[in-house]
């Protein structure tokens, strides 16, 4: 019987990751290397051969519980091709090798690859009679298995060129095993979450994700319109930087500046309404927090996990999950199918007030303010002027939010928000309980999804 030996390639320099010790990164409480090793060790099929681990000198010192064969790549700068050649040398010279055997090459930075998918690919490859096998999701992905007839081509590779080059030369001889989108996600970078939208509700999500150790990138429009600007990361678009409850957000314009913001412990804010950053970033998750009450271009395939906040999304179609944003008993509920409650057009009730809390523009024009956020205002008191028309307070309370002064508002646009609870104006400058509830659900859903992926 042909046997399949497994070669784990773990000697890369992790240049995009920003750390030479990427494989010790924890996902679900386990390192990337441990996650893969445990899956391979659980495979007990009769066709399973030996397991070879190719590592750097630094990682070799840490591999006390590794596979039976461990080989050091002393010159990782020569690229993945050198690791492939080292693995082939070790396997073919081991007592486990028999002519006609095959080698499956695995990388460690696919933590959500299911053991069952890997086994199905290898068993399917054996039954197919083909010379190459791979995981497939919109094209060939790792892991890949190669029969002995392709070893000369693998040995001829140079630099940072892997087995995909050989595979693409022989598409007719490839067995392909379909996989889910999260299984082929390559953790080339630290766990990153893209949040579309930097308004106050989305900021609650970004804030909590950052507190939990995720790298967050906020995407915004060129001229965001936000009422609660004091607690919204979108203000960085206008000011260059802003701070919300101790976390700094900074406007960035490209990948390099995004990375520098992360290195400073900041949340980068990028003007990118079309999500073009996906060409250079592979996020773990994407959250649509635009709160437009409709989908403005988010697709379920944009990240391993996609989450939509509020109405406008169907779970399982537009996004993987949907989070309820309407105040009430269902606030922050996670939907795995269906949609959030439809928009009623009426604000949630606070201290007995609903629609009175929100002020809309009576006409179009630039807005100028007579009072500031945090001020105690009385019902009927003038608060702002738009094109010569005075806008008055709709109830007595604290001016909690106000759209940016000078913003060209249009008739009917939400421009101010009054807080009826007047005991303290501190809440005008703090993330709301609603935003934190929604953000908490996003974080829990993401963490639960990670655990569920690792269990499979």
What's the main sheet like? Answer: 9 strands, mixed
Q: Which fold name fills CATH's third level, the topology of the largest domain? A: Rossmann fold
Question: How much strand?
Answer: 25-35%
- Total number of beta strands: 26
The assigned structural class equals alpha/beta
Gyration radius from CA atoms, angstroms: 27 Å
Query: Taking strands numbered 1, 2, ... along the chain, how are they ordered across the largest sheet?
Result: 12-13-14-11-10-15-16-17-18
Query: What share of the residues lie within helices?
Result: 10-25%
Uncertain stretches of 5 or more adjacent residues: none
Query: Number of helical segments?
Result: 10
CATH class of the largest domain: Alpha Beta
CATH architecture of the largest domain: 3-Layer(aba) Sandwich
Distance between the termini: 28 Å
Apparent shape: elongated
What is the average of the pLDDT values?
Answer: 93
Total tally of structural domains: 3
């Amino acid at each position: 019987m042909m046997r399949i030996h497994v070669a784990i390639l773990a000697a890369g320099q992790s240049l995009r990751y920003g750390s030479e010790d990427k494989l010790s990164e924890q996902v679900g409480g386990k390192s990337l290397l441990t996650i893969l090793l445990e899956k391979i060790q659980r495979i007990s099929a009769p066709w399973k051969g030996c397991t070879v681990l190719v590592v750097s000198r630094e990682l070799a010192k840490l591999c006390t519980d590794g596979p039976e064969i461990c080989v050091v790549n002393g010159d990782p700068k020569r690229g993945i091709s050198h690791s492939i050649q080292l693995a082939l040398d070790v396997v073919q010279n081991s007592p486990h090798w028999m002519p006609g055997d095959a080698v499956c090459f695995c990388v460690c930075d696919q933590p959500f690859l299911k053991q069952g998918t890997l086994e199905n690919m290898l068993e399917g490859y054996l039954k197919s009679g083909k010379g190459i096998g791979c995981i497939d999701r919109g094209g060939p992905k790792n892991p890949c298995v190669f029969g002995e007839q392709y070893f000369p081509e693998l040995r001829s590779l140079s630099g940072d060129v892997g087995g995909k080059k050989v595979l693409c030369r022989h598409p007719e001889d490839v067995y392909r095993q379909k996989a889910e989108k999260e299984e082929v996600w390559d953790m080339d970078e630290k766990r990153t979450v893209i949040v579309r939208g930097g308004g106050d509700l989305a900021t609650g999500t970004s804030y909590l994700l950052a507190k939990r150790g995720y790298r967050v990138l906020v995407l915004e429009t060129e001229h965001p319109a936000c009422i609660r600007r004091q607690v919204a990361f979108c203000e960085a678009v206008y000011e260059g930087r802003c701070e919300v409850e101790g976390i700094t957000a900074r406007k960035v314009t490209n990948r390099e500046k995004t990375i520098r913001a992360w290195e400073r412990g900041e949340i980068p804010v990028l003007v990118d309404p079309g999500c073009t950053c996906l060409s250079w970033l592979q996020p773990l998750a994407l959250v649509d927090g635009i709160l437009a009450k409709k989908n403005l271009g988010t697709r379920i395939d944009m990240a391993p996990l996609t989450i939509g906040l509020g109405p406008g999304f169907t779970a399982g179609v537009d996004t993987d999950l949907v989070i309820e944003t309407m105040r009430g008993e269902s606030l922050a509920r996670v939907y795995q199918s269906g949609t959030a409650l439809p928009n009623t057009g009426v604000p949630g009730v606070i201290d007995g007030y609903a629609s009175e809390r929100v002020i809309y523009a009576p006409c179009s024009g630039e807005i100028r303010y007579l009072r500031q956020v945090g001020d105690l205002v009385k019902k009927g008191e003038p608060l702002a002027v738009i094109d010569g028309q005075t806008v008055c307070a709709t109830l007595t309370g604290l001016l909690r939010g106000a759209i940016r002064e000078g913003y060209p508002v249009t008739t009917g646009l939400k421009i101010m928000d009054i807080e009826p609870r007047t005991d303290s104006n501190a809440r005008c400058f703090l993330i709301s309980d609603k935003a934190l509830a929604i953000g908490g659900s996003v974080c829990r859903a993401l963490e639960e999804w990670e655990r569920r992926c690792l269990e499979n």
